[in-house]
Amino acid sequence: MKLQQLGVIFIIIVVPIAMVLSEYTANNREVLKTQAQYDTILYNSTYDAVRAFQMNTINNGYSTINDSKIRDISASVNSFYNSLASGLGSSGYTLQDLQGYVPALLFTMYDGYYLYGDYQNMVELNDIDGDGTLDQVYSNENSSELTSINGIKPYIYYTCEYRDTNKFDIIVNYTLDNYITVMGTDKNGNIVNRSGYLINPSDVTKDASGNITAHGVQITPETLGEYAVVLDSLSESTNLEPWNGGQSIYYQYVYFNNQKYYWDTNPQTNALSYNGINIFRLNNNLRNYLSENEANDLAKYVLNDSNATYSSLNQSNFIDRSAYRYYDDALSFSNYVINDLFSGVTVQVVTDTYNNQLNYTKTQNGVTTPIHARTTYDVNDVFRINNDNDPEVESSIFNEHRMDVIISSIESNLMSIIANFNIHQNSGYEFALPVLTEEDWYNITNNITVVSFMQGMPIGNFKYYSNYSVVINTKNKEFVSRDAILVRSRETGNRSSDVGGTYHNPRCITVNTQNSGDLMGYNNIDYEQQTVMYDINNVSTTETRTFYYYPHSGSGAYECVIGRNEVNFTSDNLITGDPLEMLDSEGNIISTQNTGTNVRKAYVTALAREKYNLYKISDYFNFY
């Protein structure tokens, strides 16, 4: 064959193929570029949703109340869609268009979760009783008249049901930590409604004098304090004025009924609420001095004396006992659950999603895919609490089971809401719950999180975008995680010296090695900037003034708060006191590092105190 003929063949056959392959490769590159761009936009939008929730709750004294919580989540949803629309604006998608590509948003809270997505919601109005007024008639759920809207579905709790062969039938409501609520019928047929923190009783001792030691740490009363800017309604004016000209003042405080009560050494005597009692509480930064009855109730609680009155209180005995009460109450509750409620019971897990031996799978297009790898353990031993199964320890069987329960509930309801979305969209694209990584499931079951799903958006080459994003909310009033506590030297109330202090992550090698001084632990949210706004309305001016302050002063340590290069200890090391083992590349122990005694005491005490004072809706079960 002549060279000219080969050239013709090359031009006719090879060149077109090369051009097609080049175009295909270019398209694939564009698809990958678009997918990476959408991944970034989805993450940023989810992050903006988390930040909106944080900003609304940090300065909201009612953020833990359900109505306020729903408003905060609604604002978070709006922030997500606005951010998503802004990020995808150049692609031509409107805010309304995007709802057709977001099958669900998941908001995990302390004891349950909200789902935002597609659901049926329609009410017919008819005069069915002939009285001339319109009555609400709820349509049959399967009726073709039902319309589909996007909205926040009712709150879903993390629950699991346990039965024995006899009368025993208990539902356990789990949370993001070791707090549980037990409801149902015990083995004797008695009705059960109790809640509390589940701990390992063998690791907590209470002597004849009532002193408590937990995890080798003596739990003692604490002197707590923080800086605050407070407003007063003054007797000579209806204006709200900041005491001390908007300068934050250091106040000693105690917790009572999930609220802080402050000792005032220099009270605002012309405040409308002041009646000679130097103790106040804050309502959105407005100072309310206590009445005599409220002060007497506080004195009984603080002094642990049913006969005490407010006149017995002074600054030296104004100390907080929350950490002590956490372990005292948890000890009683845990002994009941372990030695009475679940003792002698052969537990059978009967929650629907557990009927398949806790196997988490999804089936799509005839293909079954694992969603979550269940932890291998005998579920009958979950409530057999001992040193090998301590609910306060992250690696315990109880904690692994708790996580499995939460995952089971979330994945089943997500599959349901996405399936409902599929029906009403009828777009030709099959929306489905994606396979989440085990790391993402861990974050979801141990933190307040926002999880977003976006699917079905064309990205070229007949391909569709499908991904999800998980963003942790580490600073909120809903939940105190094991990672939320920061430690620093005790503040004195002297601003110049307190500002110069440094706060550390208690897992930091440096602070554990130094282990010196009187250390205190506080929630990380208390190191966030707080905002106080108020309106001035008088003859001379009408304006809004804003003040900023930090409840705890100082700066974060570079090695463990700003960066995390020295965060080597775990929460289990701090709780149990087990040393950190340094391993070589082959897994052999080459050295060990012990936690600092003062760091452990500050951490264990602060974590117990902050958990005890969380608002928990099921607390009312214990008032009987």
Report what the structure shows.
- This protein is an alpha+beta fold.
- The protein has 3 domains: 25-117 and 346-473, no CATH class; 223-320, no CATH class; 481-624, no CATH class.
- Helix content is 30%, strand content 28%.
- Strands 1, 2, 5, 6, 7, 8, 9, 20, 23 and 24 form a 10-stranded antiparallel sheet that branches. The protein has a 5-stranded antiparallel sheet with strand order 13-16-17-18-19, with helices on one face. A 3-stranded antiparallel sheet has the order 10-11-12.
- Strand 3 (123-126) and strand 4 (135-138) form a beta hairpin.
- Helix 1 runs antiparallel to helix 2.
- The chain is globular and about 110 Å long.
- The termini are far apart.
- Residues 134-145 and 352-359 have low confidence and may be disordered.
Q: Which spans have pLDDT < 50 for at least 5 consecutive residues? A: 134-145, 352-359
Percent of residues in helices comes to 25-40%
Query: What is the C-alpha radius of gyration, as a whole number of Å?
Result: 29 Å
Instruction: Bin the strand percentage.
Output: 25-35%
Mean pLDDT: 83
Shape: globular
Give the total of beta strands: 32
If helices are DSSP runs of H or I spanning 4 or more residues, what is the number of helices?
Answer: 12
* Distance, first to last CA: 101 Å
Give a short account of the largest sheet.
10 strands, antiparallel
